[in-house]
Amino acid sequence: MLHAVLIISKAGGLVFNKDFGSGIARLTVNEYLVLAGTVHGVHAITAQISPVPGSSGLELLESDTLKMFCHQTQTGIKIVIITDAAHTGHDANCRRIYELYADYAMKNPFHTPEMPIRAELFDAGMAKLVRAINS
Amino acid sequence: MGTVVAPPAGRVVHFLQRTMWSYSSSLWAYHRNAAGQLSSGNTTVRGTRLLAELCLPDFALLSNARMSRPMTVGKRPPILDRNLNKTRGSEVSLSAFAFLFSEMLQYSQKRVSGIQDLEKKRVCAGAALSDLGYRVGVRMLELILFRERNAKRETRVLGVLYFINTTVWKSLFGKPADSLEKGTDNDDEYMISDNDPLITKYISVPREMSSLNCGAFIAGIVEAVLDGCQFPARITAHSTGSEQFPSRTTILIKFDKSVMLREKALDAGR
């Protein structure tokens, strides 16, 4: 079960967030902005403190009830998904979201990079994808 | 100290041009690979190969600095040397086109801003797009008629519309248009509709600009084809999206009076 999706720009700004799960407590927009900034910072720190050189940053944060998976792309955009603990296939899900981002945000002439994504087709594609994942 | 002999200026310029060109196109390939092309599994391989192919002249130039003749990229001859009749393998990547079209749209918008107010700007962005389409259409008509085996000059309205509906659409988008209808109100109006136009596949027009239809580009192409066939007409693009086909676009064709008169004369002469 996928609960929420966040897309963080390479500067650490939140460009997209959406809740999907029903019946769970939701964060406010401000809290999401703070969460995005925190994830961005922690990601950078984890890459620094790794004992093995050349390590990537934070990928999976796991607890009893949830998993938070962070996929960083070649261009520095982070796609973060929050799911329940039983969920699998996080990486594949993030890649599908990245695909939507590349198609419907980057190829949309009305989208400005680093700015919040406001595109109907992106929202529609995302809703369809999450429905497929959660069913 | 020995004197340093400067290489001929022309060669240096040429070298710089080649290097910069390779650099910018390999950068382009990288972006394409990194951001654009996740959809199919083997794209990484294809992207890498493309990257290598594009870097090739660069390396060749470094190892053989005396060479003055530009090398062709990979094995393919330059586009102007290829056979015009060959359609297989001449398809363009939709991603590359989407990025180009996106820039075209932004350019059209930028060009008209500052002179007109927002209301007019929308109309003008559409008009600028249709101008760009016109330039494509003029060339496409020539090319299609050249490639067509049994090409002829259409003299009747229905004939030329059918030609656009099938042949032109197929060579541009790989499929015929979804419907060709006659306007109910006026005799001189016809409509060609596409349920999911390829060029607007990735474009979401923001709500405050909803009167802008990117199909204006297709309208420009249709206008050029009709003009080229001696059927002057006024062409506009309209969004006619429904639940089932949200991005459906209708191209409205209103023929010139002279065309309708000629059509009547031809009907009478039968």
UniProtKB/TrEMBL annotation, chain A:
SMART domains: Sybindin (SM01399). Pfam families: Sybindin (PF04099). It is found in: Endoplasmic reticulum; Golgi apparatus, cis-Golgi network; Golgi apparatus. Its main location: endoplasmic reticulum. Keywords: Endoplasmic reticulum, ER-Golgi transport, Golgi apparatus, Transport. InterPro entries: Longin-like_dom_sf (IPR011012), TRAPPC (IPR007233). PANTHER family: TRAFFICKING PROTEIN PARTICLE COMPLEX SUBUNIT (PTHR23249), TRAFFICKING PROTEIN PARTICLE COMPLEX SUBUNIT 4 (PTHR23249:SF15). Belongs to the TRAPP small subunits family. TRAPPC4 subfamily. Part of the multisubunit transport protein particle (TRAPP) complex. This is Trafficking protein particle complex subunit. It comes from Polyrhizophydium stewartii. The lineage of its organism: Eukaryota, Fungi, Fungi incertae sedis, Chytridiomycota, Chytridiomycota incertae sedis.
TrEMBL record, chain B:
The keyword Transferase does not apply. CDD domains: TRAPPC5_Trs31. It comes from the Eukaryota. It is found in: Endoplasmic reticulum; Golgi apparatus. Keywords: Endoplasmic reticulum, ER-Golgi transport, Golgi apparatus, Transport. It holds the Pfam family TRAPP. Its main location: endoplasmic reticulum. The keyword NADP does not apply. Belongs to the TRAPP small subunits family. BET3 subfamily. This is Trafficking protein particle complex subunit 31. The lineage of its organism: Eukaryota, Fungi, Fungi incertae sedis, Chytridiomycota, Chytridiomycota incertae sedis.
